[in-house]
Specification:
This protein is an alpha/beta fold. The chain has 14 helices and 17 strands. It has a 7-stranded mixed beta sheet with strand order 4-12-11-10-7-5-6, with helices on both faces. Helix 12 runs parallel beside helix 14. It is globular, with a radius of gyration of 21 Å. The N and C termini lie far apart (52 Å). The model has no long low-confidence stretch (mean pLDDT 97).
Amino acid sequence: MKDITVKRQDFDRYLVPTYAPAPFIPVHGRGARLWDQDGRERVDFTSGIAVNVLGHGHPALLKALREQADHLWHVSNGFTNEPALRLAKRLVEATFAERVFFCNSGAEANEAALKLARRVASDRFGQQKYEIVAAGNSFHGRSLFTVNVGGQPKYAEGFGPNIEGIRHVPFDDITALRDAVSERTCAVMLEPVQGEGGVIPADADYLRAARELCDTHNALLIFDEVQTGVGRCGELYAYQHYGVTPDVMTSAKGLGGGFPIGAMLTLARFAAHLTPGTHGTTYGGNPLACAVAEAVLQQVDTPAMRSGVHERHTCFVESLDVLARRYGVFGSPRGLGLLLGCPLTERYAGQAKAICNIAADEGVMILQAGPGVLRFAPSLVIDASDIEKGLSRLERALTRFLGDRQ
């Protein structure tokens, strides 16, 4: 095969402009560090947006992928396969769930959850029970259904009429939630921690109220754990931190540790409504993806990993608090585990992207959660030395950011 040299400019020439990628191209990763085409190294506090939970090039994941690649890459969904069965069994044993549906992304998992909720309600109570209640400023994916359920209208604008039967209420507002849920409600969909909406953890009483309302009105409680799951918040899934059990939960991002996979988890009595032919996906349950995801869970679902996440959380929070007081660019961090957000102070509101760009130039990659929040979602196994080095580079970036504005 002919070697083709590519540069960042080729993105603008050949790809649909749905993204505005950084001016450098990462080509190699190990642990919590990435190197670009020019050989420049950066500390990665993004994990591919909370995806690479074990960092880059983890040996257990490489081993699982190579071994499975030697056996079987793909079969149609007219067959099952051993990695999918092993992964489903592991997920069921580790969570509230009794059944698993595999797909390829968080959006697909959420689409399946929403379709399941409407199907269950229609079968049991009639077609009039189809309303979905979700939180304002939420994010559930980019399919037409999920952008409508997500509480950020900008993502649904320009794609035709909105899908009917979706109501949005302020996040963490129990009174508003009670006013919105009715006998027409088939599901309440919530993120235990709003990610794209600013890294805002729900109050436990709010999630308990959602559980009670769903029980009262025969609606399904759906937790979108695409970003909060697979150890990200300190427990395997965030619902375990809160002690509130959903009827349906979605997982993706960290589940494959960087290999594309998604999953919808639910109870057998609800899963029974998705009979053969009612839903599907060509690549769902792919042997390669499931083999890697099983290796991820083997590494993540341990007491040592949970303890390590809590230790790293403390380290990040204490250090970010120091930077917050020293520079006044952002406030104290909020979030759970290693999903943290620092809201920008009023003077620098809306400038998260500029700070992220300067930080990348100084050798540390961070995220934004909207224009007003800096988001940190590093590998769950990031070394203390990488945390220290990355935060030191962030401090340089803050100094430079302030200097550019004098």
